[in-house]
Amino acid sequence: MRDTGLDGTDLRILDVLQREGRISNADLAERVHLSPSACHRRVARLEADGVILDYAAMLSPRAVGRPATVFVEITLSGQSDEVLDAFEREVATIPDVLECHLMAGTADYLLKVVARDTEDFARIHRRHLARLPGVAQMHSSFALRTVFKTSALPLG
User: Fold this and answer.
1) Global pTM?
2) How many CB atoms lie within 10 A of CB 69?
3) What is the pLDDT of residues 69-118, one digit of tens each?
4) Cα–Cα nearest to 70, from 109, 95, 89, 98
5) CB neighbours (10 Å) of residue 10?
6) Angle, nearest 10°, between helix axes 8-19 and 36-48?
7) Number of domains in the chain
8) Contact indicator for 99, 111 with CB cutoff of 8 Å
């Protein structure tokens, strides 16, 4: 592992928190073999240093009516800062877009979009995606099934 300034205890704390974000400080301290006060100080430092960005609840897409996941590859008409900035500004306003990645390869951007169904994706496409500035080409692929999903980063 690169020198990140994180020691083994920090990594154990991060590993547990990634998988069990609602764990109490007392339980976390016990799991990583620290006193509760020392554990709390470490977690606060990891938050202050920007290692821990935030805490969130992971929702079931099906339970909230967004079971369809669509990956959209977008190629822009140009690569100028103005074109990239305009695209990124606008795509960030679309609530159905969960992720947007600037890519190296065949597409300029890869979006992860959630929808109720194919008709809902058609609405998202018409009202939002097709109106994004600088778009030359767009290719959409529907995920048939999520085989594996995690938000936990490898720490080893």
Assistant:
1) 0.88
2) 19
3) 999 999 999 999 999 999 999 999 999 999 999 999 999 999 999 999 99
4) 98
5) 19
6) 80
7) 2
8) yes
State the amino acid at position 69 in one-letter form. Answer: T
Residue 82: give the domain boundaries. Answer: 68-142
**What backbone phi and psi angles, to 5 degrees, belong to 109?**
-135, 150
Joined together, the tokens standing for residue 63 give 């339970």
The two three-digit tokens of residue 36, written as one number: 């509760």
Closest by CA position to 87, among listed 135, 128, 125, 140: 135
Check which CATH number belongs to the domain holding 25 and give it.
Answer: 1.10.10.10
**Angle 132-136-137 (CA atoms, 0-180°, nearest 5)?**
95
Distance CA 88, CA 93 (A): 9
How far apart, in whole angstroms, are the C-alpha atoms of residue 83 and residue 156? 38
DSSP 14: H
Host H or E run for residue 104: none
Q: What CATH number does residue 92 fall under?
A: 3.30.70.920
Residues 68 and 114 sit within 8 Å (Cβ to Cβ)? yes
Nearest CA to 1 out of 17, 16, 14, 19 is that of: 14
